[in-house]
Amino acid sequence: MSANLPIAALQPSSTIVNIAENAESNLIHLLVEKAPIDSISKTFTSDCEKMIASANAQGLLQMVLNDDGAMTALFNISPKLDECVSAFSLLASLLQRIPSDQEQSDVAAEVAETIFQAEKFDPVKRIAMLTSLYNLRVDGVERCRLLEMIIRLSSSSPQLNQLLMEGQPVGDLLHAPSLQRLLEFWNVPLVERRKLYRIAHQGVACVEGSEKRKQQLLLLFLETFEKTSELDADAVEASVEATVGAIRDPVTLFVEQRSMLRTPAVLALRDSPETKPLLLLLEIFANGKLEDYDRFVGTYESIFDKYGLSKQECIRHMRLLSLCSLASEHEEIRTLPLLRR
What does the pLDDT look like over 324-335, one tens digit per residue? Predict the structure, then answer.
């Protein structure tokens, strides 16, 4: 269950292939050549050659990361995406030569953060580079954090949101059951899962027609709060959002709606006078009848405007759910033959 992300065509570039015998050294010279005039340190080449000669992979990586001219050159080696990604992949492969696992992880995080924060460069190239790093690393927590960065960059503009759509590598990964299985397989700690679920939910929310995926990811986020004492303002806000979502579409989200009433974060809405009516309405949709709904409206009519709920839509859904409940209670209704046209 590696879940590699083939976002970009990460084919080796002709530049890198042709210089493979002395790849690192020639890449350094290529960066110097492509860097804007006077933007790169005068000792950059000699300093990098020393790192190569002493097999100091960590030092070489950090030398490139910390030189603004070299980073500019890395992104501008070619207008072609695959050329830039191939050059970056060569640098990222140096991580595997760092002997300490912890140092490898620390430097990988530094590489990722540098690429993620490089806002002046093409976001498509940044996403492809982070994807390359994601595919190179095997640690679950590292991959989890890289996936967060990829999602955040992909949701940063309408042009990039398409990467989060179904049928795209990242979008297909952001189905709640698939993502949950993947994080369990990676043995990712609960706190890290919580952060990724929230970011995944926010990313999917940028894509039209993804209400069910969005709701499922939001519930995964809420389920990471096992005790009400863990709840913060963001969790309360998410609980309200999830509850409103389930009330707006209780038929499509019927299964999710039922599971919510066992979730401590959602049940905690009962503790506040402001949000208690919202939970009561959810309980009516899950277990109540039409007369329960009518009584609720008479007592808490203001809640509909407060949370942007349509009374007309709610009554329509409530009637439909009541009909389904009635059918489940009576054998003669359940066994009625279908009417033929």
Answer: 554 445 444 344
